[in-house]
Amino acid sequence: MSTGKKAITWTWIIPAILSLPIILYGLMSLTIALPMGAFSEGLDFLTVAVVVGGGGIALFVAALQMRATRRRYIKYIDLVANQGKTGIDEIAKAVGVPYDQATADLKKMIAQKYFHSIRIDTEKGAIVSISQIE
To answer: Can you tell me the distance from the alpha carbon of 17 to that of 15, in angstroms, rounded to the nearest whole number?
Structure first.
């Protein structure tokens, strides 16, 4: 079974790095806006600070969520591809997520071609090889 482990190793780092100068620009706009007060120029800088800084923070939070997903995906790859685990309950416990989340994550990974020639048998609560089905 082949996997795409290398493809998910550093995907979160790009948005995290890009978010830092955006947050910095928002903070700089805030430091300019505060001494000016509520006058029109100060309000313009304050608006920029809130919009740009908030966008940078949102991008950074999204990057952290991508990192958490990446870590889970690497655990799934290790359990399924390397250790040959097939029980979703067992996989969910090993990863530390609820059964439903493990099922959803594994379905996404199958759809995104991280795993080939497998599917989830919901009746058995297990991952099965497509060759076993036929």
So the answer is: 5
> What CA–CA distance (Å, rounded) separates 62 from 43?
28
SS3 category, 126: strand
For the chain, residues with pLDDT lower than 70 are 1-10, 36-43, 131-134
Condensed to tens digits (0 to 9), the pLDDT of residues 108-128 reads: 999 988 888 888 888 888 888
Q: Round to the nearest angstrom and report the end-to-end CA distance of the chain.
A: 17
Sorted by sequence, the CB contacts under 8 Å of residue 52 that are 6+ apart come out as 22, 25, 26, 29
User: Could you write out the DSSP letters of every residue in 80-118?
Assistant: IIIS---BHHHHHHHHTS-HHHHHHHHHHHHHTTSS-SE
Q: Which residue has the tokens 């795993």?
A: 115
- As to burial, measured by CB atoms within 10 angstroms (0-12 exposed, 13-18 middle, 19+ buried), residue 121 is middle
Tally of CB atoms within 10 A around 100 = 10
pTM value is: 0.70
